[in-house]
Amino acid sequence: MTYRAPVADIAFALRHAARFAAARDAGVYDLDDETLSAVLDEAGKFATDVIAPLNRVGDQHGTPFRDGVVTMPPGWKEAYTSWAAAGWNGLASPEAFGGQGLPAAVNAACVEMWNSASMAFGIGPVLTMAAINALAQHGSETLKATYLAKLVSGEWMGTMQLTEPQAGSDVGALRTKAERAPDGTYRITGSKIFITYGEHDLTDNIVHFVLARLPDAPPGTRGISLFLVPKFLLDAGGAPGARNDVRAHSVEHKLGIHGSPTCTMVYGDSGGATGFLVGEENRGMACMFTMMNEARLAVGLQGVAIAETATQQATQYARERRQGRESGAPASASAPIIAHPDVRRMLMTMRGLTRAARAICYATAVAIDRSHRAREETSRAAAHERASLLTPVAKAFSTDIGSEVASLGVQVHGGMGYVEETGAAQHFRDARIAQIYEGTNGIQAIDLVTRKLPLAGGAAVGAYLDELRQSVAAVNAANDPAFGATGARLGETVEHLARATTWLLGKIEHQPDAALAGATPYLRAFALAAGGCMLADEALAALRVAGDADAPGRVAVARFFAENLATAAGGLVAAVTDGAGAIAPAEAFG
Ligand SMILES: Cc1cc2nc3c(=O)[nH]c(=O)nc-3n(C[C@H](O)[C@H](O)[C@H](O)COP(=O)(O)OP(=O)(O)OC[C@H]3O[C@@H](n4cnc5c(N)ncnc54)[C@H](O)[C@@H]3O)c2cc1C
User: Fold this and answer.
1) 421 is catalytic
2) What whole-number distance in Å separates Cα of residue 325 and Cα of residue 356?
3) pLDDT confidence of residue 580
4) pLDDT of 59-107, one tens digit each?
5) Which residue stretches of 413-518 are H helix?
6) pTM for the complete prediction?
7) What's the pLDDT at 293?
8) How far is the CA of 169 from the centre of ligand 1 (A)?
9) Are the CB atoms for 308 and 6 separated by under 8 Å?
10) Ligand 1, from 253, 440, 443, 523: best to mutate by most atoms within 8 Å of Cβ?
11) What is the distance between the terminal CA atoms of the chain, rounded to a whole angstrom?
12) Helix or strand (DSSP H, E) at 108
């Protein structure tokens, strides 16, 4: 079975769980409902009809590498070209450079659909979009005039190059060199590893965004600069001309996303690649953070995307596969496995986790939009803090559940999930990388605890906790028996989170190791509280919409999440506040 874009669910989550509709009422957006629906419908059709059928082909064919050239899987170039020609690459890019200037939140919904259809296809454009943002915000007028329109149209793709063998999570350890040339450009020498779409035949130029160090740079992240390094230098007419001194040396053989070429890149075989400085010397990390924040949300969306696909496939299989019988049925009557409570438990878990992660990612995108588009400066500043707070949660929780849901998808298929024919195994393999790239999930948790909780002296997270309490109060006020114990369980979850937050804020400065040890369980508890409350908001909104046939289903998912999944927060928070002492010292591992 291939993916079908769940456009109605996506639109509802965007409008109500992520509060796009409320932001529009507050004047943040001027996009009417018809246009929003039309964009999502068209994206859904493209993802379902054009990209999804190529997912299996990409997995099986991979990206063979010969004589420095990567050949993309059959059909991918045609699909990419028509995707870009339809304007999808520049959906949220500046209109001045040929983009459509639509909200980041609308693009987020589309990014989910491209990646559900094929994660290996979707990751390439994600990096181009991040590169566009970095260049638009930090590039000189000349660089923007030269490169932005081609990146926005998708005629050229972008890459993001941080990683080196000794510099993974610790970006400050990178050694790639940049030397000033007399003409104001720079000569780049060194190598990078694990570069996504570092080489391919989808476009006739590739624009690399490369972190490197000047000879007189201070050590660590304060001495890193960002350079734009095109694969082909441009001729006088702006067309790709002479080959730059950068090449792919090899392509990795990986667990999943086989259709995405992951390259080792070599700079300076012949004296150094020509690079153009983006932003200021030694201020490259600030520019890269513009790229990384965008890409972190997009990778979170990959987690949602793969979870959605896995859930669709498992649900269909559970309806078709007959095995065992329902309790009380005659011995001869076999039942579809969806009749078994344990299978339905798995399917509800998959659905609940997927929808909660979707809501968190979309809410992050709405916060990003508010930070640029809100009328008042104070609102823009508060939204910036909210986006900063939610980004690591969106990235880590969504990609963790991406793997968990894909694993449950294999489980629902039984033995058929473990063999490759059904496709469930591919989702499981593809999902795993998203927990690692764009900053591992451990690094996201550390970011949340050490940088985001202290924002505004703890006021940013405090304001968020208050909003979650309002959601709990709204469920309680509805007093609807269909919600069961949703209000009570979510209330406990939010208060567990509040307790852990206070505890961590008290430790970060003087006992950082205690705080760091609890960062991962804290992030999970945060997501359970946030996701649970957003699903409750969504269910309440569905009940308010007259004649919404999906309302009972949304209430059921919110209730299941609150009563069966969010309840884990108590144990997680105990691990945060009391568990650090039980982590053995390094010597104890022999
Ligand atoms: C398929 C693929 C595509 C990629 N695409 C790109 C790309 O396009 N561009 C790019 O620049 N990079 C890319 N990467 C690299 C990726 O971002 C890194 O692999 C990732 O950041 C982790 O770095 P590392 O592999 O060196 O792991 P390490 O940094 O060695 O980490 C190993 C483990 O130690 C933990 N750890 C490390 N430091 C700390 C710490 N301070 N505190 C607590 N725990 C810590 C990590 O969480 C992890 O669990 C890609 C990687 C892969 C596999």
Assistant:
1) no
2) 32
3) 84
4) 999 999 999 999 999 999 999 999 999 999 999 999 999 999 999 999 9
5) 415-418, 424-431, 441-447, 459-478, 486-507, 512-517
6) 0.98
7) 79
8) 5
9) yes
10) 440
11) 48
12) helix 104-117
